[in-house]
Write a structure and sequence with these properties.
Length: about 375
Amino acid sequence: MILPLLAEREFGLASRAAILSFIASFGLVKAIANLFAGRMGERWGRKKVLVAGWLFALPLPALIFFAPSWGWVVLANILLGINQGLCWSTTVIMKIDLAGPDRRGLAMGLNEASGYLAVSAAAAGSGYIAGWLGLRETLFWMGECFAAAGLLLSVIFVRETLRHVHLEAGRVTAENEQRRFAEILLLTSWKDRALFCVSQAGMVNNLNDGMAWGLFPLYFAAQGLSLAQISFVAALYPAVWGAAQLVTGGLSDWLGRKWMIAAGMLVQALAIFMIVASSGLRLWAVSAVLLGIGTAMVYPTLLAAVGDVAHPAWRASAVGVYRLWRDGGYAIGALLAGGLADVFGARRAIQAVAALTFLSGVIVATFMYETRSRKGRIPEQRG
């Protein structure tokens, strides 16, 4: 939330596309890191990848603090993308390893809830702290504390989960166990109908999240909201998103994945459209809450669906491919929203993202098959 305002106020950037470049660089690098995290986790073990990810986080707060130009901030976000791709992908994979097929949605809900409640707290806290400590100082001290804590916790307390994978692999059919990485990439991206729907929905979800992260603070500031008010609205979205996943993840274990994902995308589209169709702090807060609910319906369910379809032996790679597409949405969303905002204005850019989100929900409703009861069987290929 702070970085778009830092770009505008301290570095004098006027172009929305230039300001949102930090999100694009973050999303692109994180997407690629996700891909490597899944594959490396299968070959070298999950914990080693997790610890490596936290090492990339240590220098990035200092880069922002001492940055003489906006390029340094973009470089810091590249390191953040590597950190997030390696660490978050690995924690997701480890939760799937531990949970088993019957509680996969619940496990994903717990994992994502803890992460995004922390995002909400950081968004709210950083805005208020920056009001008296300063933008750069806030980013530096908060960033270094988080990075050091993540590294220490990972080294001391985390245990390897590969043995759980080997146990689960022995309980499901082995006919689709061995797959080349190129085949996994094609299956997850296109050939399997459910995995294709999941990948495109994840990409569009993060496309609108990247727009919300980069464009909403600038849009609200242009409408006259103070930094504290922007922090409040910005914190509501991930707070509701995080808390609601405690319910929605487990709910998908009971109701199934397909309609949770489709309905969640449509709720997101409605919420984004409401941002530009309404005015005032109260209505924007309602829209942020609705956006958080829609995202909570989608986020853990998408990951659980990948775990449903993929065999334990190549599940980490499939999660990595899915997260490649999902977090690639950050880059696409930042570039699309920034470019459209420069040409047509922020209002039109937000409306365009709402339309894309609606279309994604329709694709899921039309083409996805239900994955909840599959438990490692051979994926259904498009044909």
